[in-house]
Amino acid sequence: MTKQAQRPNICDYEGSDYRQRFWEGKGRDYEDRVERIALRRLLPGHGRRLLEVGAGFGRLTNEYEGYDQVILLDYSLSQLQYAQEQLGRDPRYVYVAADAYHLPFRAGVFDGATMIRVLHHFADVPAVLGQIRRVLSPGASFVLEHANKRNLKAMLRYALGKQPWSPYTLEPVEFVELNFDFHPQYIREVLDGVGFTIGERLAVSYFRLDALKERVSADVLVKLDTALQGSGLLYSPSIFMLCKAAGDGASALDASTIFACPETGGELIREGDTLYSPGAGQRWAIRDGIYDFKAALD
Ligand SMILES: C[S@@+](CC[C@H](N)C(=O)[O-])C[C@H]1O[C@@H](n2cnc3c(N)ncnc32)[C@H](O)[C@@H]1O
């Protein structure tokens, strides 16, 4: 079996119309607004270098204005190309096409990270959260959003016998291929195991129901959601949480380069518009300002 074949499957958004199909004019103003409110409540307003894992088309990237540098990482080159068109080639933004299971960064180079609407695509949660912990400096802030299997709708459907899986058990449920819902306690245990301490948790998007959104204005729903977010009642479909990188670890916030070989963790040497890993004997391209670690050139 090849090394590649052993890797967990990836939910590939390459060439996807996610932005138009899911967001633009699709009546999700309420979801977008309450997610931004939760993010602002949890993420420190200022920092040096923030990694946005699964940044997609850059929907939330304008929330990171207080950070000196923002690294947008996504597996989809096409999503990043769109983000780059919107945000421009300002050196404050670094665009990286890579697999979050194999982050191409040195340990301890970020003091902030976010991952929103992404964890539900991961079959191996400890592996991806462990990667994120590795690249954070001690004390760094990580805002994580996850889909919550113990939500009111799932509880009701289970009680009525309309849903076979229990919302109360800890194991993730894969309701569609590579789409998982997680129990808050399961996520807590994994975060603890990979070296995070968990701070505030917010219950977000309680009113994500078409019938309700058709009848009640987004302004009212946003107000109600904002009031409920900090209630401590974690029965909403989406949970936002602030995690801190625990332990001593290495801080490399002053490092001259953030990149490391995604295969070996060793150094990468810049040669023209490529990055070369002597350890792996592999080379990756930088295409129109996007670091492309999806597939090695040789
Ligand atoms: C539902 S979208 C969310 C995008 C953005 N965070 C937002 O909230 O608008 C999920 C994103 O996760 C990315 N993704 C999925 N698996 C990934 C992986 N293994 N590595 C990096 N990105 C991944 C997809 O390419 C997609 O852009």
If you had to describe this structure to a student in words, what would you say it looks like?
This protein has 8 helices and 13 strands. It is 27% helix and 26% strand. A hairpin with a 2-residue loop joins β10 and β11 (274-277). The two termini are 20 Å apart. The strands form 2 sheets. Strands 8-9-5-4-1-2-3-13-12-11-10 form an 11-stranded mixed β-sheet, with helices on both faces. The protein has helices at residues 18-23, 29-42, 77-87, 125-135, 152-159, 184-194, 210-215, 218-229, and strands spanning 47-53, 67-74, 93-97, 110-115, 136-147, 173-176, 179-181, 196-204, 238-245, 269-271, 274-277, 282-287, 290-292. It is an alpha/beta fold. It has 2 domains: 4-257, Rossmann fold (3-Layer(aba) Sandwich), CATH 3.40.50.150; 259-293, Ubiquitin Ligase Nedd4, Chain: W (Single Sheet). S-adenosylmethionine binds next to loops.
Structural class: alpha/beta
Give the spatial strand order of the biggest sheet: 8-9-5-4-1-2-3-13-12-11-10
Number of domains: 2
What is the element string, with H for helices and E for strands?
Answer: HHEEHEEHEHEEHEHHEEEEE
Which regions contain 5 or more consecutive residues with pLDDT less than 50? 1-5
Oligomer: single chain
Task: Produce the secondary structure layout.
Blueprint: H1 18-23, H2 29-42, E1 47-53, E2 67-74, H3 77-87, E3 93-97, E4 110-115, H4 125-135, E5 136-147, H5 152-159, E6 173-176, E7 179-181, H6 184-194, E8 196-204, H7 210-215, H8 218-229, E9 238-245, E10 269-271, E11 274-277, E12 282-287, E13 290-292
Parallel strand pairs: 1-2, 1-4, 2-3, 3-13, 4-5
Antiparallel strand pairs: 5-9, 6-7, 8-9, 10-11, 11-12, 12-13
Helix pairs in contact: 2-8, 4-6
This protein binds S-adenosylmethionine.
S-adenosylmethionine (SAM) binds next to loops.
